[in-house]
Amino acid sequence: QVxxxxxxxxxxxxxxxxxxxxxxxxxxxxxxxMGWFRQAPGKEREFVATISWSENITFYIDSVKGRFTISxxxxxxxxxxxxxxxxxxxxxxxxxxxxxxxxxxxAYWGQGTQVTVSS
Length: 119
What we know:
seven-stranded mixed sheet, 0% helix, mainly beta, 119 residues
């Protein structure tokens, strides 16, 4: 069983930055592919970024490339999402998720943290 707890959301002006954190439990955290997703009001949840267990492989949706950076610290069982040059369209609830099998099937989810970007 894996538990994920996000933090770091808040209200920021357009052009600003936030760093989201995700604390994970579970003995085999370092084996999991980790990801960040988001859901804006009235929209479906969408994938934002993912990082492999070894930190060597990352992937982003086009709309955040060059602005967001996903990283992880396996020793601390933490995953981060550094978000720079934020835009109002980045406003959403952001979720941390864990894929235990490496097939991009995220079986474990956090409760989410709200990010609001004002124009």
